[in-house]
Design a protein that fits this description.
The protein folds into 2 domains: 120 residues, no CATH class; 174 residues, Class II aldolase/adducin N-terminal domain (L-fuculose-1-phosphate Aldolase). It is 49% helix and 11% strand. The chain is built from 12 helices and 9 strands. The strands form 2 sheets. It has a 7-stranded mixed sheet, with helices on both faces. A two-stranded antiparallel ribbon has the order 3-4. A hairpin with a 5-residue loop joins strand 3 and strand 4.
Length: 306
């Protein structure tokens, strides 16, 4: 009945292990790591002696991806290394509650005898003013944005028109059934990602695209497009189609047409034209999984251009 049991037995040991390893890589002593993580030096020693690569770490029933775990743990370790202990604490705690609110702690919770079909505790705790479907959707999107903000390369994929990220509730019928980032996603000169918390009805553009494709995908993000990005798409085997909005005033209709002609496409490229910046639309069913793909794309993109 208590979701905190999942945090105590699944999430906290996992994040401690990941963060401790990264701090050790930075040359931090076991005593200092213990102080930062609030555990004993003996516990840190045991963590660092444990066998197995990070890719093989057991998530203990949490439905989380390796990429998101790596990014969040690395960001938290960086904050601790910089003595920003409160910011690190906010990050890892918020990340836990977004995992729980988006339904990805349910399998672990079931181990304690709590049936998933009856449970919406975490979603309503985090988003008490939203119904469950909207809470699940916005938790997934907020978690995905947290993952992108933890990336050191995602900023390279933000176009001049800036990015946005949108997720629709099941059976979405209008723009107020689609959550997105108010004002879009921006970046600082240092590459820090800036965004406001997502809200329903915040992006008419991306909402119109998701509504036009009639539930084929529930999530979309727009990022830059150039020939390097084309190479990244092809290297990763991401199937994509193209159109030019320079000759069309209805981007949503063009995206719908491309996806109708290419049912296996996961990306649609607007090649732009005179006065129109090229962009890439990446689609998926879960925002956090789309974020992981985009981060992978950004890391490859950065390796090519730098």
């Amino acid at each position: 009945m208590f979701p905190e049991a999942v945090a105590l037995n699944s999430y906290i040991p996992l994040m401690r292990r990941l963060i401790a390893r990264r701090l050790k890589q930075r040359g931090i002593s076991q005593t200092e790591i213990a102080r930062m993580l609030g555990i004993t030096q003996a516990a840190v020693s045991k963590i660092l002696r444990s066998q197995g690569s990070e890719a093989n770490i057991q998530t203990r029933g949490l439905d989380v991806g390796d990429t998101e775990l790596r990014l969040v743990a690395s960001k938290a370790a960086d904050l601790l290394y910089e003595k920003n202990i409160n910011e690190a604490g906010i990050l890892v705690n918020r990340y836990w509650w977004l995992i729980a609110a988006s339904g990805d702690a349910c399998r672990a919770h079931e181990r304690y005898g709590w049936r998933k079909s009856e449970c919406y505790i975490c979603t309503k705790l985090v988003y008490p003013d939203l119904d469950v479907s909207r809470g699940l959707t916005i938790a997934d999107l907020e978690r995905a944005l947290l993952v992108l903000s933890a990336s050191k390369t995602f900023h390279m994929l933000i176009p001049e028109v800036r990015s946005n990220f949108a997720a629709a509730i099941p059976g979405a019928r209008n723009i107020y059934d689609v959550a997105a980032v108010p004002g879009r996603i921006s970046k600082t000169k240092e590459g820090e990602i800036i965004y406001r918390r997502p809200a329903f009805g915040a992006s008419k553009h991306l909402a119109s695209i998701l509504l036009s494709i009639k539930g084929r995908y529930r999530v979309v993000i727009n990022i830059r497009f150039d020939q390097t990005l084309r190479r990244v798409l092809e290297d990763l085997g991401v199937i994509y189609g193209e159109f030019s909005s320079a000759g069309s005033h209805n981007v949503a209709a063009e995206v719908y047409r491309v996806l109708e002609e290419c049912p296996n496409c996961r990306a649609v490229v607007d090649v732009g034209g005179r006065g129109v910046e090229p962009v890439t639309y990446i689609f998926g069913e879960r925002a956090v999984r789309v974020a992981e793909l985009v981060v992978e794309m950004a890391e490859i993109y950065a390796a090519i251009v730098t």
